[in-house]
Amino acid sequence: MDGDDWDLPEVPLAEDTESYTVRVLQDGGVLREETVTAPSWMYSDADRLADGMAGPFEIAVAQNSARYGIGVFANLTVDP
């Protein structure tokens, strides 16, 4: 929505607020899900320990929209 001005550094998305859903997945299950209001997030050692994290895992991030809900997730596999 309203993303026709490609001369700007970022395309306006017609959202009142900026938020993202971040999921930590392992073996197909969601270990943690958080909503953040900035395009950054830290998965601390304490959080990993609390989640029982061991071995490779996946981080999935999607932008949220008040009008359309959670968008398409982008995934990254992390092998510590």
Question: Layout of helices and strands, plus pairs?
Answer:
Elements: E1 20-26, E2 29-36, H1 45-50, E3 57-65, E4 69-70, E5 74-78
Antiparallel strand pairs: 1-2, 1-3, 3-4, 3-5
What does this structure look like?
- The chain has 80 residues and is mainly beta.
- The chain has one domain.
- Helix content is 8%, strand content 39%.
- The chain has one helix at residues 45-50, and strands at residues 20-26, 29-36, 57-65, 69-70, 74-78.
- Strands 1, 2, 3, 4 and 5 form a five-stranded antiparallel sheet that branches.
- A hairpin with a 2-residue loop joins strand 1 and strand 2 (29-36).
- The longest helix is centred in the middle third of the chain and has 6 residues, at 45-50.
- The radius of gyration is 15 Å and the shape is elongated.
- The model has no long low-confidence stretch (mean pLDDT 87).
Q: Give the tally of structural domains.
A: 1
Q: Write down the overall mean pLDDT.
A: 87
Count of helices?
A: 1
What pattern of helices and strands is seen along the backbone?
EEHEEE
- The dominant shape is elongated
What summary fits the major beta sheet?
Answer: 5 strands, antiparallel
Our Rg estimate from Cα atoms comes to: 15 Å
Low-pLDDT residue spans = none
Structural class: mainly beta
